[in-house]
């Protein structure tokens, strides 16, 4: 069987882009519920999943080996109530969504998503160049 690591970075970038898209959607949902009484903000934490997966890799020599051994099944991000802010509410209706924070986080996530999709495009461009097409 032929083993190739040609798509390792693309696969991880794809998972990261999916998580970023989910986080954008989650932040937009938080903004939409900013006036809903007792609503608690949700967030997506993909970075911890990826960091844990890279640190758990038994190949600590270089990033290529770590990426090659990443278990993509462990990199499935989910939207969850932000536990750090769950009990915190500065409003009388117990909603803990801060519009300013959410808008800044959303803008930041949009930049991250753009960077991830650009990186995926660059990986495919490098492959195409290497093939000679």
Task: Give keywords.
133 residues, mainly alpha, two-stranded antiparallel sheet, 2 strands, 56% helix, 5% strand
Q: What is the element layout, followed by pairings?
A:
Blueprint: H1 8-32, E1 42-44, H2 46-56, H3 63-68, E2 79-81, H4 99-131
Antiparallel strand pairs: 1-2
Compose a concise summary of this entry.
It is built from 4 helices and 2 strands, in the order H-E-H-H-E-H. It has 133 residues and is mostly helical.
3D structure, described in words:
This protein is mainly α. 56% of the residues lie in helices and 5% in strands. It has 4 helices and 2 strands; from the N terminus they run H-E-H-H-E-H. It has helices at residues 8-32, 46-56, 63-68, 99-131; strands spanning 42-44, 79-81. Strands 1-2 form a two-stranded antiparallel sheet. The longest helix is centred in the C-terminal third of the chain and has 33 residues, at 99-131. It is elongated and about 60 Å long.
Helicity, as a percent range: 55-70%
Strand order of the largest sheet: 1-2
Question: What's the alpha carbon Rg, rounded to whole Å?
Answer: 18 Å
User: Overall pLDDT, averaged?
Assistant: 85
Tell me the distance between the termini. Answer: 26 Å
The main pleated sheet reads as: 2 strands, antiparallel
**Beta-strand content:** under 5%
Topology order in helix (H) and strand (E) letters: HEHHEH
Count, helices: 4
Instruction: Assign the structural class, choosing from mainly alpha, mainly beta, alpha/beta, alpha+beta, or little secondary structure.
Output: mainly alpha
Low-confidence stretches: none
Kindly state the number of beta strands: 2
Shape: elongated
């Amino acid at each position: 069987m032929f083993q190739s690591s040609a798509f390792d970075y693309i696969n991880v970038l794809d998972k990261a882009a999916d998580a970023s898209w989910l986080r954008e959607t989650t932040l937009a949902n938080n903004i939409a519920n900013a006036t809903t009484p007792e609503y608690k903000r949700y967030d997506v934490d993909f970075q911890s999943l990826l960091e844990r997966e890279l640190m758990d890799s038994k190949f600590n020599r270089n990033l290529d080996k770590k990426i090659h051994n990443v278990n993509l099944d462990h990199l499935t991000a989910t939207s969850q109530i932000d536990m750090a802010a769950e009990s915190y509410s500065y409003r009388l209706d117990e909603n803990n969504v801060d519009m300013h924070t959410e808008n800044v986080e959303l803008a930041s996530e949009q930049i991250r998503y753009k960077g991830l999709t650009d990186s995926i495009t660059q990986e495919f461009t490098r492959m195409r160049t290497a093939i000679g097409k």
